[in-house]
Amino acid sequence: MAMEPDRKLLEILVCPVNKMPLSYDREHQELISKAAGLAYPIRDGVPIMRPDEARQLSDAERDFK
C-alpha cells in the first residue's frame, strides 16, 4: 500500500512551472497540474516536484481530472 503524503503539505504545494494549485490523485499517487499538463509522482509519501520527473497529461486526462 502506498504511503499517503501529509495533508498540510498538499495544501501548500503548487506547480513549480506555473505556481498554480495542484490536485491530488490518490489512485495514481500523483499531484496533477491541469494548467501545466503535468502529473508529479508521489514516491513513499514524498511528492517529487521536479518538472523533468513529471509525466505529460494526455488531452483526455486534462479534460477529465
TrEMBL record:
Similarity comment: family membership: Belongs to the UPF0434 family.
UniProt GO cellular component terms: cytosol
Alphabetical list of Pfam families matching this protein: Trm112p
Protein name per UniProt: UPF0434 protein FHS83_002158
